[in-house]
Automatic annotation (TrEMBL):
It is an enzyme of class 2 (transferase). The modification 4-aspartylphosphate is found at residue 565. Residues 79-131 form the PAC domain. It comes from Halorhodospira halophila (strain DSM 244 / SL1) (Ectothiorhodospira halophila (strain DSM 244 / SL1)). This is histidine kinase. One of its GO terms (molecular function) is phosphorelay sensor kinase activity. Its EC number is 2.7.13.3. Residues 515-631 form the Response regulatory domain.
Amino acid sequence: MVTEQQTLLEVARATTAIGGWMLDRSTQAVHLSTETRRLLELPPEHRMDLRTGLGLYPPEYRPIVTRAIHTTLHHARPFQLDVDIHTATGKRLHVRKLGKPLMDDYGNVLGLRGALQDLTEIKTAERQARRLSQRLETTLESITDAFFLVDPAWRFTFLNREAERQLNCQREDVLGRVAWEVFPEALGTAFEEHYRYALAQQEPVVFEAYFAPVETWFEARAYPSDEGLAVYFRDISQRKQAEAEMAQLNEELHQARERAEQASRAKSEFLAAMSHELRTPLNAITGFAQLLHQTPPDETQDRDQHLEQILSAGWHLRDLIGDVIDFAQIETGQLAVHAEPMAIDALARNSVAMITEQARRRGLTVHCQSDPIAPPWARADPVRSRQVLLNLLSNAVKYNNPHGTITVTWSTAGGSVQVDVADTGSGIPHGRRDRLFEPFERLGREAGSIEGSGIGLSLSQRLARMMSGDLQLLHSSPDRGTTMRLTLPRYSDDHSATSTPPVSLSEAAPAAPMRICYIEDNELNMMVVRGLIRRKTTVTLDEAWTGAEGLARIRQGPPDLVLLDMHLPDMHGRQVLREIRADPVLTHLPVVALSADAANETLETADGTLDGYLLKPFRLADLDALIARFAPA
């Protein structure tokens, strides 16, 4: 901007014309040099006096020139005037008129002499330069970018309004000052580095940097010249934030994709493992059943061993399927828990009793430790709590060292009850602990001989949290074992916790006569219940193969208990249940579901009218306990 203005002025000065003139005071004649005549477009023969000479000046300038001449003539003072003048052809010029007195030896003013310089081109160039400067300044003020100029000494020479706003400063406080004094925070930053490089190397630079004093990200473009540095910059904070958010989103998407791929791999591995886990007990069941079929009747010891293996494989298969179903129900939000007061002492000791034989076979010792004076009570779902604790105990057995120990301790801590299960196994590798509760993870044990689906701990932790508790790894050391902690909400009322021993078949047999109606369309399921009832001399069984047949038998004579399959060929078990409850005579009749349907709404609620349920396959002892529960007094 400055360079172009100077160029215009220099060109104008180079083309400036200067002529001389002289005024004779006595005759009032004005004598002009050849250059002056050319400038004023006067012919050589033209004669000029003071009056005609003053007539060349426009009316607004004429008094100014008259006063200046009069003052010089009477007071001998020189003058210099920048005025307009007309040429003989009427052209208007802007001139500089210089005059000084012409004196005799006695100090008398005889006249004036001086020069006339044409400044028209200079004036025009100055006006053009001003217009250019104003236009450029207007342009720089109107652009959306912030802009400033510094000279080679780093002093601010221009700053537009947007730069004032972006840098939080006023131009009157900045212009003429050194940039590094105004903004010392820029020293040692990318701004100083790039600006100094641009000016020193005379190369434009473009960069992005954060300016802490105004907490803003800027994109800056600096253009050097001999006059200094022109810098355009803009606020890119929103773009930077968007880029950061996009980068974070991409990272989250990348992590999510990795998790999804890992989950997909884990599920694929799980399906492969489940295929193995399911086929293993199935092979045991079918294999020992074939051996049992081929074993002579008199070899009772072999037959008993075969039966024991079939039962063991069957229960293992049931537990595998149950874990998978429970996990799926939690994932879809279909599993509910029912909290009630529960004695932790009874829960722990009954659970330990269920794994004692398994532990004995591996040479393991199981210890139980608790406060004998005030054993704690919890408020939780007894069935799900036992499921979680059995999973911990089962892992302690499976992953323990031969002839190791398992220690179960329980105590209160504030508003919680804590149950710790400690083993003396090989421990959990430190690098795998963060995946301990991820579903389908077996922590590198996939190739080992230990059975498992990899969802037990994940399922157990989710169940614990559904009961407002938690399951966590307390500590684990290589070759020294692992301790897991189950935390449940404490039940504060005072109770005496006593373990309730399992009901045996003989103890559960009702003494009074009892009639049971079993509505079931599957012959094998009917045979199982028929075989159990046949051993009870005081219990009779009415068999119905459809819902309609079952309702007809019940209405002919209400039984003491109805065992109901929920999936019948002619109607759903819920419909049978609704019709029983709608009959005033049958509305209080005990109805227990025996179903392979694991849907919580079917087994646990069934419109809130079931008196109990057993999930197939069930233990005969559990069915026997149910029969005893509803037996007539």
